[in-house]
Task: inverse folding
DNA sequence: CTGTTAGCGCATTCAG
DNA sequence: CTGAATGCGCTAACAG
C-alpha cells in the first residue's frame, strides 16, 4: 500500500550516520563546495542511492534564503494567452533549476492581493504579475522587501520595477490605422473596467490614431466590460443596440473578440460585412474562427521568456540598477474578420 | 528604488522584540492555539501591522512538515486541456490555502522524471501527474515516501494510487460507434507513441467498438505520432497517402485533430465529405474551427476539481484506505467535422 | 581532507 | 496567561 508508506523522508543526518561521516561531508559531496576524498565520496553516494535520499529544499531554502521558485500571478490560466507566458517563463527558468508557482486571480483585486501576499509568505525569489488594477500595494510591498518584480502588461513604470509588455499604445494605433485604411469610419473599442494597464494603453493608441486621422472620438463607442468571452458578447450587444452602431469593433483581446463574434452572430450580422471585429493577442484560436479573426500579434511566448531573463538577471545581480522596460512590437495579423 | 530595498524580511523575533513579548506569544496570537490576553494580543497585532510581518512559510513548513503546495506535472500547459485541469485544481485547493506548482514536461520521460524529483525535493503535499509513459518509478517513489499521488489519465491503477480520468475506453467506444452510425466504414485512429495511458485506452475502446460492429481492425490504420498539432498533421498526411485511405479519422485529442484538419486542407480535401475528422477533449477551440470539430467531451475542469478533492481527502485523512478511481463519463459532441 | 557548531524562522513541549 | 528551550534539515563559518 504505497499510499500509506509514511516511510519518513530520509535526511542528511540519516545518510551521514549510515555512511559513517559527518553531515558536513555529505553536504559537500553534494555541493562540491570543498574537496572530499574519492573513497568517502563513493561511499556517501552509495548510501544516498541506497536510502533514496532527496535533499529537503525547504531546509535548504531557509538556510540559503532562496527558494528557487518564481510566482506567476495572472488573471486566468484558462485564457490561452497566459499559458504561453507560463511556458516561456519555464523555458528560461527551468534550466536554472527554478520552478513556477501559478495563481489565477480572475483580475479580482482582493484575489490578486491575497495571491501576492501568499507568494511573499512563501519567499518566492521573483514575482511576475499581470493585473488590471491601478494600485498594487502588495506588489510594491513585495518589491520593497527585496523580491524582484516584473510587471506584465503596459502599465506605467514604477520606480525600480521592471516591465515586460507589448507596446500597447502602438498596438492600439496600428490596429486602428489598419481599420481606418480599410475604410471603416465608426470604430468602437471594447475594453476592461480599469483605467490602467494594457487595456487602457490600447485605448490610448486608438485615440491617438483617431486624432491623427482627423476622426472624432466618441466616449460612447468605448465600452468597458469584464474581460472575458461573455463580457465581450455583452459589450458587443450593447454597441449593436446603439442608434448609431459602429461599423468596426476593436477588442482588447482575442477572448473578448470571440464574445463579440458570438454577439454579432446572435444578432444575425455578418462579419466583416455588417461589422468588422478585430482582436488582440493572436492566440491560436484566432486563426480558426469563422471568419478567421484579424488581430494583433504580441508574441506571448517571447514575453514569458523575457520575464524569465529579467528575473534571473536580478537574482544573479547581473542586471543594471535601473528598472528595465521591455516592449514587444505588435504587428497586425490580417485575416477575415476585419 | 524599491528594487534595491534589501530591507530584510521581518521575522517573528523582530515582532516579539518590538512588542516586548516572547516569540511564543506572537506565534500564539497568530495561531490561536492557546489563549493570549486581550492587551498583548492587541499590542502584538499592532506591531505586526506596523512592521508588515509576513510569517515565513518555509520555516513553518520545515517545522510542520507541510508545505501547502501541490504539484501538477503535465505534458504541456499550452494544450488548452491542461489549464482547465489546473484551474479546477486551484478552485478546490485555493480555499484550503494551498498553491499549485506547475511543470510542463512535453511528455518527455526524462523531463517527467526530473520534474517529479524536483517536487519530492520540495516536499509538496500532493502530486497530480499526467504522463504518457508506462513506467513511473519516480512517481512510485513519491507515493512510497508518503506523498499522496493522483494519476490523471486512464492508465491502469496501481496499488494505493488514486486515479482521475475520463473513461477512455468508453470514450473510444462511443466515438467509434458514432462514426459507424454515420456510415463511415474505414475508420483510422491517430494516437501517441506509448502503449499505455489515455491514448492507449481510447484505442482499446475503438477496437472494442469495431469488433462489436463486426468490422475489421487494421493495424495500419492506427498511426502513432507525437501528440501535438504538427504530429496530427503528419499522421493525417500519412493516412491520406495510404492506397486505401480512411473515410474517417479519430484523433486522440482535439489538438491532434486540429493538425489532421490542417493536413486535410493541405491535401485539398473537404471535411467531412472526403474524410471525417473527430477529436477528443472538447477544448474551447473545437467549437470554432471550420468545420466545427465533432469531439468527445470529458469535463476537464471537473476532473481538476476531483483531483483536488482527492488530494485534500488524503491530506486530512478523511479518505478511505483503498485507492480511488474516479471516472468521468465521456459524451459525443456532434458538430460538423464528422 | 574532515568534523563541530551556529542559526535560518517557526511551532511546541515543558516549566512556570 | 506567558517564556525558555528544542529541533525541523541544511549550509557555512570556524577549527582542526
Result:
Amino acid at each position: 500500500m504505497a499510499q500509506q508508506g509514511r516511510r519518513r523522508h530520509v535526511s542528511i543526518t540519516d545518510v551521514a550516520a549510515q555512511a559513517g561521516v559527518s553531515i558536513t561531508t555529505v553536504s559537500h559531496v553534494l555541493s562540491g563546495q570543498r574537496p572530499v576524498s574519492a573513497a568517502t565520496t563513493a561511499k556517501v553516494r552509495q548510501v544516498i542511492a541506497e536510502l533514496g535520499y532527496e535533499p529537503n529544499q525547504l531546509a535548504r531554502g531557509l538556510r540559503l534564503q532562496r527558494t528557487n521558485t518564481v510566482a506567476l500571478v495572472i488573471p486566468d490560466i484558462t485564457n490561452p494567452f497566459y499559458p504561453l507566458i507560463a511556458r516561456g517563463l519555464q523555458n528560461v527558468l527551468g534550466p536554472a533549476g527554478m520552478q513556477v508557482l501559478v495563481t489565477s486571480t480572475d483580475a479580482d483585486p482582493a484575489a490578486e492581493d491575497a495571491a501576492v501576499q501568499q507568494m511573499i509568505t512563501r519567499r518566492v525569489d521573483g514575482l511576475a504579475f499581470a493585473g488590471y488594477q491601478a494600485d498594487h500595494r502588495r506588489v510594491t510591498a513585495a518589491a520593497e522587501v527585496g523580491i524582484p518584480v516584473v510587471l506584465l502588461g503596459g502599465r506605467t513604470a514604477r520606480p525600480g520595477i521592471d516591465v515586460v509588455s507589448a507596446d500597447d499604445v502602438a498596438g492600439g494605433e496600428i490596429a486602428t490605422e489598419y481599420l481606418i485604411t480599410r475604410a471603416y469610419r465608426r470604430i468602437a473599442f471594447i475594453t476592461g473596467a480599469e483605467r490602467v494597464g494594457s487595456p487602457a494603453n490600447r485605448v490610448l493608441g486608438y485615440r491617438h490614431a483617431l486624432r491623427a486621422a482627423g476622426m472624432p472620438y466618441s466616449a460612447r463607442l468605448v465600452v468597458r466590460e469584464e474581460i472575458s468571452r461573455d463580457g465581450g458578447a455583452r459589450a458587443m450587444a450593447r454597441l449593436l443596440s446603439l442608434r448609431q452602431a459602429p461599423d468596426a469593433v476593436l477588442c482588447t483581446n482575442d477572448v473578448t473578440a470571440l464574445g463579440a463574434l458570438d454577439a454579432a452572430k446572435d444578432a444575425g450580422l455578418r462579419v466583416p460585412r455588417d461589422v468588422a471585429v478585430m482582436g488582440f493577442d493572436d492566440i491560436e484560436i484566432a486563426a480558426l474562427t469563422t471568419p478567421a479573426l484579424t488581430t494583433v500579434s504580441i508574441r506571448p511566448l517571447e514575453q514569458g521568456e523575457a520575464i524569465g531573463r529579467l528575473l534571473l538577471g536580478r537574482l544573479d545581480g547581473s542586471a543594471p540598477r535601473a528598472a528595465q522596460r521591455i516592449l514587444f512590437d505588435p504587428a497586425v495579423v490580417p485575416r477575415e474578420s476585419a
